[in-house]
Design brief:
Shape: globular
Structural class: alpha+beta
CATH topology: pa0076 fold
Length: 232
């Protein structure tokens, strides 16, 4: 699986636009736009295990916790199993008939070609991507509407070439990664620790979480299950 994902992810070099996969209230079933089949399968395998875990933990776990969970922004290194760096957002969602399933939007980068500037550029766009997912879910948008919005959110220059000395770019990144200051400096593209955070809403502080290793049910519970104060 990792080899398949890598070959697809790097076939055209860095992917400068966000691909996405999952379910939307405006669609009848799964939708995949711009994400490789291998990577979508990698996400689906983890989500399916996590959804089973939530159902077993509480009969109303999906409606009570998953449906009202926040949008999570992420920086995922290649060592977690996918074999590539992913920068993007994950949001709770469902399809047209109410079957719960998240929607994920990710910018995929070759771990070998990764530079910290890529994190600065991509995380500076995190708020726009998260807002696009929220609007798509709340307004029951169709796949075409979300796709059009996400196509307009891309790296402004070649493969993460934002100048880290650019004050506006750096300030934007600091806002979008408020829970993980200096993320671009310590993120290891080949490592196994993924970083997750939410944006500040009103007076609520952002939540953060760091997960080491392959994606498992514990990570899914932390993001979408019953709140556990010790996890943040």
């Amino acid at each position: 699986m990792p080899g398949q994902i890598m070959s697809e992810a790097t076939a055209n070099g860095r992917l400068l636009q966000f691909g996405w996969f999952g379910k939307l209230p405006g669609a009848g079933d799964f939708v995949n736009r711009g994400m490789s089949a291998g990577l979508a399968a990698w996400w689906d395998s983890w989500v399916q295990r996590g959804m089973v875990e939530l159902r077993q933990g509480a009969a109303d776990g999906l409606a009570r916790y998953f449906a009202v969970a926040p949008v999570w922004h992420f920086a995922i290194p290649g060592g977690t199993g996918a074999g590539c760096v992913q920068l993007g957002c994950l949001a709770p969602s469902c399809d047209r008939v109410g079957r719960y399933y998240p929607v994920v939007a990710a910018l995929v980068l070759d771990a070998d070609a990764y530079t910290p500037d890529a994190t600065l550029a991509a995380t500076g766009l995190a708020g726009d991507v998260g807002a696009a997912l929220i609007d798509a879910v709340r307004e029951a948008q169709g796949p075409e509407q979300l796709d059009d919005v996400l196509r307009g959110i891309h790296m402004p220059r070649e493969a993460g070439a934002r100048d880290p000395s650019d004050g506006d770019a750096r300030r934007a990144c600091e806002v979008q990664t408020a829970g993980w200051p200096n993320l671009a400096e310590f993120f290891d593209p080949h490592g196994a620790t993924s970083f997750w955070w939410t944006l500040q809403v009103n007076d609520s502080p952002p939540r953060t979480y760091a997960h080491t290793g392959r994606f498992d049910a514990r990570l899914f519970r932390t993001l979408f299950g019953a709140p556990a104060r010790a996890a943040y």
